[in-house]
Hints:
Blueprint: H1 2-10, H2 13-27, H3 39-52, H4 62-85, H5 89-92, H6 96-99, H7 103-127, H8 134-150, H9 170-173, H10 175-193, H11 196-200, H12 204-227, E1 240-245, H13 257-271, E2 284-286, H14 300-309, E3 315-324, E4 333-342, E5 347-352, H15 366-369, E6 393-394, E7 400-405, E8 424-429, H16 438-454, E9 458-462, E10 467-470, E11 476-480, E12 486-491, H17 502-524
Parallel strand pairs: 1-2, 2-3, 7-8, 8-9
Antiparallel strand pairs: 1-12, 3-4, 4-5, 6-7, 9-10, 10-11
Helix pairs in contact: 1-3, 2-3, 2-4, 3-10, 4-7, 7-8, 8-10, 8-17, 10-12, 10-16, 10-17
Amino acid sequence: MERLSGRVILVWGFKRALLAILAGAIGVLALPPFGFFAAMFVSFTLLVWLLDGAAAGPDSGFLGRLWPAFAIGWLFGFGYFVAGLWWLGHALLIDADEFAWALPLAILGLPAFLAIFYGVAAALARLLWSDGMGRIAALAFAFGLLEWLRSFLFTGFPWNAIGYGAMPTPLMMQSAHVLGVLGVTTLAVFVFAAPALLGTRQGRVPGIGLAVLIAAAHFGYGYYALSLPAPPAGGKAAPVVRIVQPAIDQEAKMNTDADRAAIFDKHLSLSVQPPVNGGKRPDIIVWPETSVPFILTDNQDALTRIADQLDDDQILITGAVRVEDMGPGLEPRYYNSIYVIDGRGQIIGASDKTHLVPFGEYVPFENILGYLGIQNVIELPGGFSAAASRHLLTLPSGVKLYPLICYEIIFPNEMTPEIRQADAILNVTNDAWFGDTPGPYQHFLQARVRAVEQGLPLIRSANTGVSAYVDAHGRLISGIDFNEQGFVDATLSSATVSAIDDRMRNMYFWLAIGGVGMIAVISRMGFIPRAN
């Protein structure tokens, strides 16, 4: 290991840049659909050794001394985000004639921007760098802090935070209930980087010892949480939920009125199928995001057909576009919404999306970028509007669902205090935009981790998948294979009773940040011995 670390530390020029990109790309193997979490050990061990060799000239100023570390971190991030997000380009190929020109921006431009966060993390870590285990603590501190910033700066995009690589299975997800994904990220970086100490000796025993303790606590808490008695069937008559996955090709939604009518018919047909193996008739039926391919409130026939197919006490929850008339001479506003429809075809509840996808659902700085010809991938005049706030969907039975549309579920900070009153998280999405790529699988993992964080079951309906019912510990209770057309019925279980809320999770995250930061600082000051 010492010979290998020496070669990595001393590598230079083009080979050094290529190795940094490769190190980042290797880490993606820890994410879905691979789930090979050991890849992160290789990734971060290489990053530590590369930063060991990131030295500037003696006459360099403050920024000049940080530049080599920033460059290594940026290259590492570029490799990580290109390998982990290349599938975003698939959405632009749905209407290739219109958007193919933007492929380089999606595949390379966004990763180049996101990599800045990792570049800053590496530069910040280098400020606190020391020869012993303090340097892996500095790296954990810096990555935890920058992943936190990435979760909300510039509208936020915390997709594939490093901590998800440490949570490929329910056993390894349970720590998120206490620390949140950002707290797991902070400690995971420390653990993933620990093997670097084998190559440079200093701080080997205390550093690897602490990493082993953190890993043991991670697995141990997971075993403990999963060994607790399973949540009982929920109160409120334990409703049966049917999750519909129609597997509609995205291009079909953009075609003729006949195609749209066929899509609507398919959703209805799957909704009224008899339960498998003589099970209980569903009380709640859930369709995916924007599954109604027309403005539902303008189509009374569609509402009548829903009423004809549903029993009086059944509820349909569907994604749809909601339009709001702003008055004479003004453009209407469109919302990406969820409707709650009762058995008489009446809309009895709705929730609008609050966190829109930039360039997908709206164009930032539209007055400027629109003039340059940049427009939304989704064709609506002016794009979607964002709702001012989110609220629970309360069904006639008393069941309360916390609604999250599409990628809203990847944001831990999207959870308002109301979620403590919910019986389940409801996530509707349409990942058909991304085809059979890693994207839908990565999205599903992040949705499962939200369920674990909040201690709530997850009801997830996705057009092409992954649709599933997940319990409050992130375990897949029932689901539908990707791209398979069908449905699953599941009985809503009780939420996990827990005193841990988002405020406490945030406190534990900052304690983790403070802990590794303190190790880095006192090591930098020479108060931690550097011996083996």
